[in-house]
Each structure stands twice: as structure tokens, then as C-alpha cells.
Amino acid sequence: MTRAARTTREARATSEARAPRSTTHTLTVAYAGGEERRGPVTMGQANMIRCMLRDEPEHINIHDVWPVPEGTPTDAAIEALRALVVRHEALRTTFPHAPGSAPREQVVASGGTFTVTVLDHGELPGDPAGYADSLARAARVERFRLDRDFPLRPTLVTVDGAPVFVTMAASHAVTDVGALTVLREEWLALLAGETLAPPATLTPLDLAAEEATPAGLRKSAASLRYWERIIRTEPQAMFAEPGAEGTEAPIPRLTLRSTRAARALARVAERTGGLPSTVLLTAWCALVAHRTGQSACVTAVPTSNRYHPRLARAVNTLSQDALLSLDVRVPTFDALLKKAWGAALNAYRHSQFDALSLWEMIDETTFERGSRFARDVVFNDVSALPASVASLVEEGPRAETVDGGRTPAGPELELTWGPDQVLPTRVLTFVYAIEPLVHLALWADPALFKRDEAEGFLTGLVRLLEAAAERDVPLASLTGVTGVHPVDRGPGWRRVDGSWTSPPLVAATLSEALAGLPVHVTADAPDGVPPQDALTAYIAAGDTPLTPGEAHTALMDALPGRPGVLAPRRYVIVQYPPAEADRSSAWLRQRILSEGTGRAPADVT
């Protein structure tokens, strides 16, 4: 049984275990209206379609839960859904494509049908909202067929025929969190009898046309140049260290809810004049770079690209990564905060791109550099979005008050552990609220963070905010201020080409990739030669025909999931290993059969 099948079975079993007695029937809803259109996909759609074709559906599909106003008839709830489908082209869109290929075109239908599952109960369990959320999550595990499926899977949860919730799994090819929020708000408005004004946003096809203009193409090209500069020069992976292995891992969720952090965050913003969201990002980056021993914090900062009025309320998928590179080689927190504002703006400015071209560039650039770009650190701040975003987690931000509303209620500092989720990252942070309490969730790879270390990281984040609220904190003092220690990589690790790597680990990986041929890797220059910031690999090929290009290609194929491995800048191939196989000078005395970078055409054959 595949992992996806196990996940599907487990999700359904969990939902069924929590489910009270119920009856189910399916309604087929016909719709007609709007114009039939077709055209290219948008950059955001291409980005998410790439992820949908690559990732497990439960990881990339999204969901929401819409509470139904009391007294709403079933027919009214269904009719409001029908009106949304007619109103928004994205909900009438499919993506035709040949098997094995990625869609490049979208088709908008003028009419069709969709289904609504009606799940009727005698009564709901003690946690109705949690039960509804479990139904929505269970619906995420089935893959959407891009060429034919309706992009929403709505279930109407009723009690004795009276609607209570609409649970919704959604295709990320046409919706993101912002789009689901818009749909929820409009659905509630329709149920309240309001008349919706015509949409004042770009449709997906209109956006695709705008992206194809000369100005749109220039913007995309500028984004690719920005990304290429970072990927050519900055750390290949933030967590290049012992224990960082594999491309996916089950990671438990750790949730922080803290009024202490919110008070400190507000005081730092007041003292420095910085935006609270930028202050939190700065503190987080400072702590990540400190923990990893890196000179820069390179992190994916997902953005919905909804900053333009014509896209703010678009029902479309606008999610693309902004890539933040923040140089932490400054003396104090305040100096880093000043840099962070500009660095974040620069990242967001370059977050619209052709995803296929981006990954072609990444593959070419990393092959030349001899690394694999690892999207191993993600910081996603959705605190500025409406509260319905909280439906993406099991416990939403709670903002109760006491003293007649004057004082925010909530824990001073509360850490709670949640379920595991399989993720292709080492550290993922979601920020749900920054006032009246800081509410965020951290998923930290347990191979790198024991439970007490993950808790210490979030506690250290709060301590850093509290210290920065009182004074400008020297970054050299972060260990004492936060209690978070830099990683101890042990002997054999060194910084090469801006990245942490282990020459013995590189040698072992290259030898494995070459079917066990003896390999020696060094970052030391030969006697009399100035020190170099690159690795050299010596390979004893014996009677095996081998070129530097073949050696480099074999190593690059072995790199995914090994962030501590950086390819040598030069491959030196000899026939037999020396007696002193651990000494570079001994390898240099061997007769050289061939040598080269492995990147040039002449090195390949």
C-alpha cells in the first residue's frame, strides 16, 4: 500500500471514528451563465499545477469550513453555491492536457453541473467545528483531475435536515486561501439577501493576458534574475548539517499562543518604528540564522500577490513564493530590522514568475554550481488575512478579552503539540495572528530538533522580542538572550562557496554514486597554491572509463535529500588510489588520466 493510500485510509478512518450516525445523499446542481472562453494558464496557476502534479493531494489541496447561518434552508444554501459558480470563471475552469504533460491552457465553461454531498445527522458531536474540519480534511486526500473535475468538493452538514456547516475541499489550481475567503464572504452575503456588485477583479484569463504583455514578461524576467542571483551565491540549504537527510519527513506541529510575545512585539515596533510583521520576521530570521550558523537567512516567504486592488478579491490562485535573502552580518537587531524591510520588499517585488522557467533556471544554475536548491525553510505570515484563514488549522486564533474588553485574554506563553504532517521542508512556520496575542505554528524536523529544542526555539523567539523591546540587542549575544545554541556540526564540516558542507560526506556520496570507486575530497589547496574556496575530488577509476562530466552528473543525481553535500569544483581522475589515500599530496603524485570541472561539454565525454 502506498503512503498516499495509507494517508487516505487513515484520514477516512479518523473521520469515521469521530462521526455520529448520519445518512448521505448527493445532489447534482446544474448551472448556466457566463461566457465560454479559453486561453493560457496564469503564472500562479502554472506554479500550483506543477505542485499538484508532483505532491501528494493532501499536502497541496486546501480546505475551509463555512458555518451556515441558523434558519438557512438547504435550497438557499445550494442556490448560493450555484450563484458563485456562475459569478466566478475560476469555478467553471478545467485544464485540458495530454497524459504525462502539464496543462498550459485553461477552458472556462458556460454551463455544466457540480455535486454537493448532503450529510444529515440526528446530532453532531461535542466539537461540531472540529468534526466539520475533519470532514473537510478527509476530502483533501483525493486528487483533483485537472482536465475534468469541478474544483470544489462541498459537503452540506445538516442536523435533522437543517444546514449547519458547508465543508469544502478545493483545488489549488484555481483557489488559494484568499480566494476561499472571498467565496465564503460572498456566499454569506447571498444568504443574507444582499445583491453582489459585479466582480471588480481580473479573471484568470485576463490576468494571463496581462502577464503576456511586454511589461508582464519583463517583470517575470526580473524575478528570474533575482532568484538566480540568490541561488548562485547564497547557502544552498539553511539546514546543511548532520541529521538533515531525505526530502520529506513526518513533522509534528508545535503551536505558540502568547500575549507576552504580542506585548513585546508591539513595544519593539513602537521603539524602532518598524511594522510588527517585519519585526517578527526579523526576529525569526535572526534566530534561524543563529541556530544554523549561517551568514544569511534564505527562506521562502509565500505570498498571495493580492496587494494590487484588481487582484485583492480575485477568485484565483495567486500564491507564489517570494524568496527572501537577509544578510545577518550586522552588529545589532535594529540594524538587521532596517535591512529586513528592504529585503522583504525586494522579495515580494520578485514573486511573480513563470514557474516552469524558474525551475529550469534553478536546475541549470544548481548543476553549474554543484548544489541542489533546498526549499527547507518557509515562513508564511497570514495574520493580515481575514480570520477565516484560521480554519486551515485545528485551533484558530482566539482573541477573547477581559475587563470589559480592555485587556486581551489568553495565555502568557502556551506551547501545545499537535499531529504530524509529512512536509518537504525542515522548518515551516505559519503566523496566524500577531495581536492581541501572537499565535503561530512551527513544524521543525525532529531529526534536527528534539521536542525540547523546538520548544526552546519558540521560547527563544519570545525572549528575543522581549529583549528587543527594551534595547538594541547585539546579535553576538543571541545565545545568552534566547537560550538557542548554534548547531554543533562536529569535525569535518567547513564553509565552501557560501555553503556548509562535509568533504568526507561528499567523498562517500560520490563513491556511492560511482558504484564504490575510491574517492578523496578536499578543500585544501596543494602546497604552494593559495587557499581555495572550492572542493577538489580525486577519483581512482581503475579500468572503468570515466570522465569528469560523468562523475559530476552521477553526483548531482545523488544530491536530492543530502543538503550537506556540495559538488567539487574540480574532478581529478587517476587509475589507482595511493597508499596514503587520506592525503591530497599523495593523490597528486598519481598519474592523472583526466581532469575538469564536470560542467563543460568537453568534460562530459
What does this structure look like?
The protein has 605 residues and is an alpha+beta fold. The model is unreliable at 1-17 and 388-407 (pLDDT under 50). Strand 6 (111-121), helix 5 (128-139) and strand 7 form a beta-alpha-beta unit. The protein is globular. The protein has 18 helices and 23 strands. 36% of the residues lie in helices and 23% in strands.
What proportion strand?
15-25%
Radius of gyration over all CA atoms, rounded: 27 Å
Helix content: 25-40%
- Tell me the span between the first and last alpha carbons: 42 Å
Q: Name the structural class.
A: alpha+beta
Instruction: Tell me the overall shape.
Output: globular
Question: Strand order across the biggest sheet?
Answer: 1-6-7-8-3
Q: Report on the biggest sheet.
A: 5 strands, mixed
Low-confidence stretches: 1-17, 388-407
Number of helices: 18
Calculate the mean pLDDT score and round it.
90
Number of strands: 23
Which key phrases capture this entry?
18 helices, five-stranded mixed beta sheet, alpha+beta, disordered N terminus, 605 residues, single chain
Q: Would you kindly provide a brief summary of this structure?
A:
The protein is an alpha+beta fold and 605 residues long. Residues 1-17 and 388-407 have low confidence and may be disordered.
